[in-house]
Each structure stands twice: as structure tokens, then as C-alpha cells.
Amino acid sequence: MSTISNETIAKNFSLLSKLMEIHGENPFKIKSYANVVRVIEKYPTQLATMSINEIAAIKGVGDAIAQKILNQIATAHLPLLDKYLTETPAGVVEMLQIKGLGAKKVQTIWKELGIETMGELLYACNENRLLRYKGFGEKTQANIRQAIEFYQQSQGLFLYAQVDAIVQQIETQLKTNFPNVIFFICGKFREQQEIIDQLEWISDIESTDLITFSEKNNWTIKENENSTIHFSTPENVQLVFHIYPKDQLALQFFLHTGSEEFLTKWKSAFPNSLELPLNSEEEIFSKANIAFIPAYLRDYTTTIEKAKNNSLPNTIQTKDIRGIIHSHSDWSDGANTLREMATYVKASGMEYLVISDHSQSAFYANGLNAERVRQQHQEIDQLNQELAPFHIFKSIESDILYNGDLDYPAEILDSFDIVIASVHSILKMDEEKATSRILAAVNNPYTSILGHMTGRLLLSRAGYPVNHEAVIEACAANDVIIELNAHPRRLDLDWRWLTKALESNVLTSINPDAHSTEGCKVIQYGVLVGQKAELTAEQNLSSYTLEEMHDFVKRQKAKRKK
Questions:
Q1: Least CB-packed of 275, 296, 368, 495 within 10 Å?
Q2: What is the rounded average pLDDT of the residues 195-213?
Q3: In terms of C-beta density within 10 A (0-12 exposed, 13-18 middle, 19 or more buried), how is residue 92 classed?
Q4: What average pLDDT does the structure give for the chain?
Q5: Architecture of the structural domain at 6-153
Q6: Is-same-fold flag (6-153; 318-560)?
Q7: What angle, 0 to 180 degrees and rounded to 10, lies between the N-to-C axes of helices 495-503 and 523-532?
Q8: Is the pLDDT of residue 526 over 90?
Q9: What angle do CA 154, 493, 259 make, to 5 degrees?
Q10: Which long-range contacts (CB under 8 A, 24 or more apart) does 409-414 make?
Q11: Separation between Cα atoms, residue 360 and residue 235, nearest integer Å
């Protein structure tokens, strides 16, 4: 006999009522299950100790619900709940844990917006998509965003961008409190990995001083042994401090950065370079008589060979970005007007803006129909006269329809300087369908840039199963740029595949996919992962000068006429 508690039984009925409401079931049945939750929560006796007749006699329960309670007591399962759990995406069920999201709102999110994961919902909040639906005001959307971020932090994995500010804050505090102590951040953060599970430092600090400091900052000690101390912050960020004598810091700084493959190869090839004394990490490379390899290029052993031959590339820097490509205004789902976007980008020192609002099929994002496209182009013409020599290029983020077509007839597509083709809907595809759909768009002469190629949302949604080689080959053949979407939750195309694309002479474009002026700032995160792919400024479209962009547009328009 199960010892299931009243609390668990009540939670099961509560979840059942919510799932039934999401599925649009009979409101009377929903109400009966919702009402019994309060009855069970307040009942003074554990139901598991009672007979079915005693349970049925409780006011507000009745025979049918009593039988379901008895089933839970006997099996720890509620079969009807199991049925709805099977029929509901796990991410939709998870949304019910978010404060401020009741069943009706979750139903709208799932059924009308087509969102099935927490990450997709957070992304939709950041793109202001919820505001277009009844019951979702600006304040509600902001509250949902904050609640999701809090929930995801509790899961222990973070985007690089999420911990960036935390690292800066901790390092400032450490330097202030311990001005004579050395702290080197190492590990995944130093390597510029897109997902961070812990932040690591090498230091010569006294462990007792570090523990005292941690207590003042409300860090919890998780482990303390062998001169390595693990902490957890109130935000559930894992911190690791490796403590060594000062004369070992340079060596350990090197050994705690890079993949196992890279470090194993190095130890085998250059054992003498790791012998003490060492005054700096750079000295290790000098002893090996090869060029310094940046931390972000220590994933593979191939960079060791390039360093031997002095052929490491001059990778792209944020200062190399000359314009903002792929941005949205309030013509579709952006937060700022076109004028505000343009003046902000110009004031940032950029030479141009490529405005790429959503196309007509993106109804959820207030996509532009043909008439609104013409109206926006009139505004662009006027702004270009006012803001010259700064230039706004006419673009669109065209949905790739299910059959691979773009979202407008040829005469409308021809009015754009640049067409970014992206998949936004019907995301559940096998590899054959996903690949054929994208290939059709890449083969369309109007496609200039393939946007966020796999549709992934980091920590939230895996990308669709695309045949990367086939798509890269098609982009090379059709002179199509593959976007490196700089949004920290996308960073799509993955840098590991971007390396392959660059080897195939396919250019990329680091684009912020900005839905506000503030959103333009994420370009730096695209640069960080671009560096891991050994991307140079010459291989990046958004590093083109204004004159070079005009030439690019001319080539794209010529391609359409072939």
C-alpha cells in the first residue's frame, strides 16, 4: 500500500485540472478537479489511511474522484493525469511552474504562438511577441521573462552572456579586497564556450581568506579539498577556485584552459615547455618556439600545427563590425521605431543599418504585407536623405515556408536590397524535410543570407536535424551568406560548423537579430564565438565598409537576373 501524502494527491489533481484546461476540456470537470485540490489540502486526516467510502463521503469529493484518489494510494499514479502528460509537450507542462502563467495563458502560448519550451517562451518575450495576444500586457511579459530567467538559473547551466556580468562583478570585488593576490579566470569562460557550467579561477589566495570573503557574499561551500574550493552563489552559479603557490600559477593557468585533446597533445609535443620556473603563460609558448595560441583556439590540436607554422589567423574583433545587419523595428515586432534604430546605430559609429523586419506569414510578429513593405521603403528613402552618408539598406527576414518558398512573389522580393531567409514555423521536421526546405530557399536567387540556420535556442531547443554539409555546399554554389546570429541564445550557426563553412569559402555575417536599440549590443557575443571558428574580418559581411556593402547589394541584384 502506498504512503502517498495528501499534498501529493492534491498536486496531481491541480496539475490535471490545468492540463485539461490547456487542452480545452469540459469546464465542469476541470472545476471539479480544481475544487477538490483545496478540499484535500485542508483535510486533517491522511487519505491513505481511509477507506474509499470514507473518502467519498468528504464534502466536495464524491464517488468518481474518490476512486481516482484510491488509485493514487494504491499505485502512486493518476491514469488520467498520465494520459494528459503524454499528450502535452514537457516544456508546456514546465511552463506551469512559472509564476504568473496560468493554464489559460499557457494555452495561448502553446496553441496560438506555437511555443513548446521555456527557452522559446523567453525568446518570444525578448521579441515582444506576447504583447499581441489578449491577457499579455507589457508588465505581464516582463514578469514572465524575469520568472523564466530565475527558473533557468536554478538548473545550473548558463549562457556565456548570462555569467559575463557576474564574472566582471566578482573580479572587481576580488581585486578590491585582495589587491596583492593574483586571480586568473580560466576554464570554459576563458575559452569563450557558449554554455558555462562553472566559473574557474587560478589564485594564490589563502583559503581562509577566500572562505571569509565567500561568507560575506553569501556563497555556499560545496566542496573543499586538495586546494580546490567549490562554491555556489545565490544565483546558483558554480564557482571553483584552484589555489596554488605563486610560482605555479603560470603553469596551472595554462593547464586549466583548453580541451583535454589539446593539452594531451601539448604535453606530448613540448614537455620541456612546462618545466618550472615559469613567469607567465606566454613563456610556455616561447619555450616551445611557437606563436602564442589564444585561449579560444585551444579546442583542437590543429591550432598547434598552425602556430608552429606561424599561420594562425588574425581573428575578428568587435571593432571590425562596420554595420548592423538583421534588425527589427516596430514595423514588425521590434521595440523601437525605424528612426530610433537608425539614429542609434549611426551614433554608435556604424556606417549602415540593414533593417530586416518579419515577412507577411509571421503573423505572430506583425509581419509586413506588400503594402506595408512599400510604406516602410518610403520611410527608409526619407531617412536616407536625412542621415546621409549613413545608409539604411532595405531588407526583410523572409519566412522560409514549409515547401521552401520565400514569403513574397518575385516583384516584392525584388524591391529589397538584401533578403534574409529564415525558418520560423513548423519546426518539427526530420533531417530530409528540414534540409530540403532550407536547400530550396538557398537555391532561390533572391536569398542573400541564410538566417539562424538550425533554429536552435541554447539550453532550450536543439536545432532541427539539418544536413550541414549539403547546406554549406549549396550556400557556396549560390553565393549565399550563412548568418552567425549573435543573440546569446542562438549563436547559430554553431562555430564548429562555421569552421567548415569558412573552409568551403562561404562567408558569414555576424548579426545581432536586434529587436531594440539595446539588442544591437549582443554583437560582441557573436564575435567571441566567431573567433573560435578562426573567423577573420575579411570573411564577415558585417565588417564590410559602406562602399563594399553597396557592391555586395549590386552583386545580389545581378544574381537575381541570371
A1: 275
A2: 96
A3: buried
A4: 94
A5: Orthogonal Bundle (1.10)
A6: no
A7: 60
A8: yes
A9: 65
A10: 410/446, 412/370, 412/373, 413/446, 414/446, 414/560
A11: 41
Could you tell me the residue ranges of all domains in the chain?
6-153, 158-308, 318-560
For 106-129, the pLDDT digits (tens) are 999 999 888 999 889 998 898 888
User: Whose grid coordinates read 522580393?
Assistant: 413
The CATH fold of domain 318-560:
TIM Barrel (3.20.20)
pLDDT > 80? residue 318: yes
220 is written with which cell numbers? 555556499
- 62-75 vs 27-42: helix axis angle to the nearest 10? 60
Task: Answer yes or no: are the C-beta atoms of 33 and 20 closer than 8 Å.
Answer: yes
DSSP string for 359-396: BTT-GGGT-B-HHHHHHHHHHHHHHHHHHTTSEEEEEE
CB 327 within 8 A of CB 514: yes
Q: How many residues does the chain have?
A: 562
Cβ-based neighbours of 475, under 8 Å, separated by 6 or more: 442, 450, 481, 482, 501, 506
Write out the three cell numbers for 66. Answer: 474518490
In order, the DSSP letters of 185-210 are EEHHHHTT-SEES-EEEEE---HHHH
Q: What is the pLDDT of residue 149?
A: 82
Grid cell for residue 202: 587560478
Instruction: Output the CA–CA distances (angstroms, integers) from residue 251 to 254, 262, 294, in the order listed.
Output: 5, 15, 15
Q: Reply yes or no on whether the pLDDT at 150 is more than 80.
A: no
How are the residues of the chain apportioned to helix, strand and coil, as percentages rounded to the nearest 5?
A: 50, 15, 35
Q: Is 530's pLDDT higher than 80?
A: yes
pLDDT tops 70 at residue 1: no
Q: Please, which residues have CB within 8 angstroms of residue 247's CB and are 6 or more apart in sequence?
A: 276, 277, 278
**CB proximity list for 289: less than 8 A, separation 6 or greater:** none
Integer-rounded Cα Rg, in Å, for the chain is 28
Annotation: CATH topology of 158-308? Beta Polymerase; domain 2 (3.30.460)
Residue 15 to residues 11, 33, 64, 67, 501, Cα–Cα distance (Å): 6, 9, 18, 18, 47
CA 216 to chain centre: 32
Contacts of 79 (CB under 8 A, 6+ apart): 71
Angle CA(497)–CA(502)–CA(503) in degrees, nearest 5?
95
Q: Which of 223, 229, 237 is nearest to 167 (CA)?
A: 237
Grid cell, residue 96, equals 506551469
Contact assessment for residue 99 and residue 149, using Cβ atoms and an 8 Å cutoff: no
**What pLDDT score was predicted for residue 154?**
60
Measure the CA–CA gap between 474 and 490, rounded to whole angstroms: 22
Q: Is 233 helix (H, G, I), strand (E, B) or coil?
A: coil
Residue at grid coordinates 489559460: 104
Per-residue pLDDT at 2: 46
